[in-house]
Amino acid sequence: MEFTVDRRLVEGVEVLEVEGVIDLYTAPILRKILLEVLAVEGVSVVLDLDGVDSLDSTALGVLAIGLKRTRENGGSLQLVCTHVQILYLFRIIGFNEKFGIHPSVQAAVAAIRKPSQ
């Protein structure tokens, strides 16, 4: 399967829609794009992982780096994921306590918008 990252704006929030497998070979691509987006101070980002078939420890490292950068810049990084196996992995490693994990892009955008209202 091909790996892609599509970038779009939804209600002023950067959305990165990822499809394919995030592994040792594709994680650097995601890292580069994510860090480019997160370079803007205070930016809010939704990382849509619903099109991700699987991910490895390299991908988890990219997510952790993204979260750290977001916190440094005063922004928000929310995840969209409904895949049971990936959600299970996130629970095991504690990502469910670090990230907002949502069932849809709309829910993630709403979570970002809620604190500012």
Can you describe this structure?
The protein is an alpha/beta fold and 117 residues long. It has 5 helices and 5 strands; from the N terminus they run E-E-H-E-H-E-H-H-E-H. A 5-stranded mixed beta sheet has the order 1-2-3-4-5, sandwiched between helices.
Unreliable spans? none
What coarse outline follows from CA principal-axis ratios? globular
Strand content: 25-35%
Which structural class do the helices and strands define? alpha/beta
Helix percentage: 40-55%
The first-to-last residue Cα distance is 40 Å
Q: Can you give the mean pLDDT? A: 94
Largest sheet, order of strands side by side?
1-2-3-4-5
Q: Please give the count of helices.
A: 5
Main sheet overview: 5 strands, mixed
Rounded to an integer, what's the Rg over CA atoms?
A: 13 Å
Order of helices and strands: EEHEHEHHEH
The total beta strand count reads: 5
Q: How would you classify the quaternary structure? A: single chain
Strand-helix topology:
Layout: E1 4-10, E2 13-22, H1 27-38, E3 44-55, H2 57-73, E4 76-80, H3 84-93, H4 95-98, E5 100-102, H5 105-116
Helix pairs in contact: 1-2
